[in-house]
Design a protein that fits this description.
single chain, 268 residues, alpha/beta, 9-stranded mixed beta sheet, 4-stranded mixed beta sheet, 8 helices, globular
Length: 268
């Protein structure tokens, strides 16, 4: 894990505050800086003009002077060297919400994807909210049951952008009752950390593979390394999930987590 987190990520659970203190978006703006450039990638949404402009206005109020809304809507556009260069020359990237499969199916394996990885390795901040959060990991949740008990074989997963490895990100976590589906994901992949991020909450992931929590709600960490047994298999796919000895942490602002040592941190 320590070699698989190279840059700076801000991973947001969705519905972040855009009208009040704007704690999470303000943090991104502070990293980018007034003289820095921010690219807002609207690939995930089917309303790129509206969504991109809304975020442009918010980030302008937070002091960023150089903002470009980049709507990459096809793989041809994602392979356009001009768009890749826009990414290479920016100081921050922000993925909006929408449909995470749109991001991976359009950007995955393209020149834009290569540019994202290049700037990530250089330490450029890459942020994403909702669907833009899910794609950060190498394996992402695409579909699963909300507000229901965990059931085997009900989770649909797909490759993400791979900026954060050995983790599964879920968003709108507590608000949409997604503990069951994250438990399924960890039961199927016990070596991965399950990270469920509530709305108006984010994790700031640093290059040494620890994260800090900011925002008004909490982050739930599901550590599967301690699992003693589960009934995960393709047999009887509609069965309720059985899982024993899983480790769960619930962390509000002021806490963090060492993803290498699998230990809770107290910040400040």
């Amino acid at each position: 894990m320590e070699e698989k987190v190279r840059g700076n990520l801000v991973i947001i659970g969705g519905a972040e505050d855009k009208d009040g203190n704007k704690t999470i978006l303000r943090h991104i703006a502070d990293i980018v800086g007034q003289e820095g450039s921010l690219v807002i990638l609207t690939t995930a949404t089917e309303k790129p003009g509206e969504v991109g402009n809304n975020y442009r206005i918010v980030f302008e109020t937070l002091g960023i002077n150089n903002i470009q809304v980049l709507n990459i809507n096809t793989r041809d556009e994602a392979n356009d060297e001009k768009n890749a260069d826009i990414i290479r020359n920016c100081n921050g990237v922000f993925f909006t919400g929408g449909d995470q499969l749109r991001i991976t199916s359009i950007i995955g394996g393209t020149r834009t994807n290569d540019a994202l990885k290049e700037v990530y390795k250089k330490g450029v901040v890459i942020a994403g909210t909702s669907a833009g959060a899910s794609v950060m990991s190498n394996t992402m949740i695409v579909e699963g049951n909300n507000n229901e008990p965990a059931r085997k074989c009900t989770l649909k997963m797909a490759p993400g952008l791979g900026l954060l490895e050995e983790a599964i990100i879920d968003q709108h976590f507590d608000q949409r009752g997604r503990m069951g589906r994250l438990l399924c994901g960890v039961a199927e992949n016990p070596y991965m950390l399950g990270i469920g991020i509530d709305e108006d909450t984010a994790i700031i992931v640093y290059p040494d593979a620890h994260f800090e929590v900011i925002g008004s709600n909490a982050v739930t960490v599901v550590d599967g390394k301690s699992i003693k047994s589960s009934n995960v298999s393709e047999l009887k796919p509609d069965e309720l999930l059985a899982i024993t000895n899983v480790t769960i942490h619930v962390l509000p602002q002021g806490y963090g987590f060492d993803m290498v040592g699998r230990e809770v941190l107290r910040i400040g």
